[in-house]
Amino acid sequence: MRTYKRKTERADTPKDVVERACHLIIFDNKSIKATSKQYDIPYKTLHRYVVKLKEKFERNPNLTRAELTLDSVGYIKNRQVFTDVEEEALASYLKKAADIYYGLTPYETQKLAYQFAIKSNKAMPDSWRTKLLAGEDWLGSFLKRHSSLSIRTPQATSLSRATSFNKYNVSMFFANLTTVYQRLNLSPGDIWNVDETGITTVQVPNRIIARRGIKSLGKMTSAERGTLVTVAVAVSALGNMVPPFFVFPRVLYKSHFVRGGPIGCEGDANPSGWMKEENFIKYAKHFVQHVKHSKEKPVLLLLDYHDSHLSIEALDYFKANGVTVLSFPPHCSHKLQPLDRSVYGPSKKYFNRACDNWLASNPGKTITIYDIPELLKTSLPLAATIENIQSGFRVSGISPLNENIFPDSEFSGSYVTDRPMPNSHDAGNFSACDVSTVAVPSISDASNRLSNVEEVPMPDHHTVTETHTLAPQCSSVNTDQITNTMPSPTRSLSTERESPSLLDETLNSVYEAELRENLKTPENVHPPEANVPPSLYNLNLASTLSATLEELRPFPKAAPLLDNRRNIRKRKKCTESYADSVPGEQWIQCITCKLWAHSKCARGNLMFFECKHCISDIED
């Protein structure tokens, strides 16, 4: 029965209470009648459990109180397919899959449960064999029995964000941050974070109360698609904020663009509406004007690794005015940037509410880009409170400094691409001086290593700028090696990334054939031998079940990079191999992935060249 509710309290005594009563009778020679009254257990029930434990104790007299336990107490769940230990193993597998950002959907969980039942030779309902799938009733009951699990809607997370936030990148960032702390003797008021966010003229409507059962429900907005305006905000660990800086999608900037905006705000314009190098230079002057610092009283400015922040002119200006710049590792700002952690989320919510109020007060009118500063004037102070700003610096471990703020579970997303540390001489081959070097490739050196397997070192992007020369350090990715029960799939030699698959088609076909052959009625799993204590029998059972689940559905794991992947650079218009280049050709190396490209084919800032696969937090 799907919604059965128990109507009696019979056989509801906890297992530990029954075992304690039996131990008093067996070890302390208490009478069954007195003990049954003491623990409120029926006499016949207690007598039956005492007989079972005495038989087990006679087979193995060396058992202690802790080892002399009952297999089960109360009514046996005859219709439950898996045992409690097996369900715990399945729940642990589901949790780990979700932690590494490859969680299973309800359908995939039902399919895995069916495969697990076949592999474990379990008795199951006929509907499972017909549909090759566990039933929805089983899934609902399984979730009720394991309250730590629930069906959630995941947030889309790019592979770059999931894999770049690893122990090595975070530890190197905090090492650089500690160095700056010691060198400049900073106080919370001297630590600043700046970041840009996009605001559009079309808000996301908040939830409303409406008639129950209605299928289509709307809320008024200005247009189908909005126009984006970039807003740059800087906050300090003390809770202060610099007036925002706007970038409008216009060719020329006019002062009336920010009319009605926050006091002290300024702006600029470019056709795209995004922050660019020339806009960031103007923002640098805006920041210096309001922070009031000098070389005698320097400050630290934390920012992400966006291209616009690498302007030499802006870095020189910061240096001349006593601003030390430290960048976050690429694709890690969602965890390390205080503004992203505690300010921009509430700010978007309050801005949407301000837009709803504006449209209700101005019926028939639409929000334009020139209304955004006025709306932000009322919404930003509600989000950028002293408590929220200080909380953002605290949860990111920046102020107060706490390099151990992130537990190991936070780095689970990098499990897919975890690789062992390379040798020390390999890591030394990539130094800071190689960042912007235009080199002529050596054909012999490259061709000698085409078949060797190596661990590719990753660079350190935590750039501390006190001079105008950026020097990213190159080192290896340090992540905890997590072994997989199944061999990693082979990958092609192309530099194009292949998306990892949780359940390969070949694996599907193999198990499909095996499942079809095993459709005959399975035999029950044999219980453990009587002379083996239950505690010893269950010692390795959970790990065995976990291994079985990983065999059925292996966790995704990227294969080691091959050496010739370093020498091949595929582009839409440039597919020539580094090893096959003509003497005299000029090549440039990406500071992030260390792959090579023709200097003529490279785009963007050649002094700090990054390929399109590694560029900042802007996704393709």
Structure description:
This protein is α/β, with parallel strands linked by helices. It is 35% helix and 9% strand. It has helices spanning 15-27, 32-39, 43-59, 84-99, 106-119, 126-131, 136-145, 159-164, 167-184, 277-291, 312-320, 333-336, 338-342, 344-361, 372-383, 386-395, 424-428, 443-447, 505-517, 534-537, 541-552; strands at 191-200, 228-236, 241-248, 266-269, 299-303, 323-327, 438-439, 459-460, 464-465, 473-474, 587-589, 596-598. Strands 4-3-2-1-5-6-9 form a seven-stranded mixed sheet. A three-stranded antiparallel sheet has the order 7-11-12, with no helix packed on it. The protein has a two-stranded antiparallel sheet with strand order 8-10. A hairpin with a 4-residue loop joins β2 (228-236) and β3 (241-248). α14 crosses α15. The longest helix has 18 residues, at 167-184. Residues 478-493 have a biased composition (Polar residues). One of its GO terms (molecular function) is DNA binding. Keywords: Membrane, Transmembrane, Transmembrane helix. Pfam families: DDE_1.
